[in-house]
Design goal:
single chain; mainly alpha; two-stranded antiparallel ribbon; 2 strands; 3% strand
């Protein structure tokens, strides 16, 4: 089979038409934040960034400006602490849960009694994580108590 100059020219033109489309697709792809991606920029596996978590809490309990500042500091500190746990640490998950529970206790302490009720009613975070009840983060919920007969 003989390749005509016209066929070569068509292939070249097609190739040149595809290159800009590929370049634009690469530029449009959102950059992943340092330390992992996924979860909407929260560091992977459905984790939320401090900003996303603040927005979730604010939506649920309506924080004051002062509370927002303090909650942001708590969330930023706990995120940094969780990211500092080595990937190969066998207790990484447990340590991360402890850090999140401590952050939730700190946040809860900043809230009014009315806000605490709303905070405790917020849905659990992620797989198996962070359920809160009347006793605070991870506290026992009244419906979880076995019936005494």
């Amino acid at each position: 089979m003989k390749i005509s100059p016209k066929s070569v020219l068509m292939a070249l033109a097609l190739g040149l038409a595809i290159v800009p489309a590929i370049s634009m697709a690469e530029e449009a792809a959102p950059a992943r934040p340092p330390g992992g991606g996924g979860g909407g920029g929260g560091g992977g596996r459905g984790r939320m960034s401090p900003e996303q978590r603040l927005a979730q809490i604010d939506t649920a309990v309506t924080l004051t400006a002062e509370q927002k500042t303090k909650v942001t500091a708590i969330l930023t500190k706990s995120t940094a602490a969780a990211q500092a746990i080595p990937q190969d640490d066998a207790d990484r998950r447990t340590k991360g849960q402890e850090i999140r529970a401590a952050a939730d206790r700190e946040i809860r302490a900043l809230l009014t009694a009315e806000q605490q009720v709303k905070f405790d009613a917020m849905p659990q975070r992620g797989p198996g994580g962070g359920g809160r009840g009347p006793g605070g983060p991870g506290g026992e919920k009244p419906m979880d108590k076995p019936k005494q007969e």
